[in-house]
Design a protein that fits this description.
- Pfam families: USP7_ICP0_bdg.
- By secondary structure, the chain is low in regular secondary structure.
- The chain is built from one helix and two strands; from the N terminus they run E-E-H.
- A hairpin with a 5-residue loop joins strand 1 and strand 2.
- The radius of gyration is 16 Å and the shape is flat.
């Protein structure tokens, strides 16, 4: 389950439970994360799903126009 207010919250799912036991329903979002390579770990900007979602939630997009 992912919530953005007041903070980004992403609850882990127990892989051993069924969807019903995990209380997953239609419309729920499931995020998967690959395990980082050990030698590449320090170069990863967002180390987990929660930090990436926090970035996406707080980012600002700028458009520049030159005439």
């Amino acid at each position: 389950k992912i919530k953005f207010e007041p903070n980004v919250m992403c609850e882990p799912i127990d892989k051993k439970l069924t969807f019903q036991a995990s209380q997953l329903e239609d419309g729920d979002i499931i995020c998967f994360q690959k395990a980082p390579a050990i030698d590449n770990e320090e170069h990863i900007r967002y180390t987990d799903v929660s930090s990436y979602l926090e970035y996406m939630h707080n980012r600002q997009v700028f458009s520049l126009r030159f005439n």
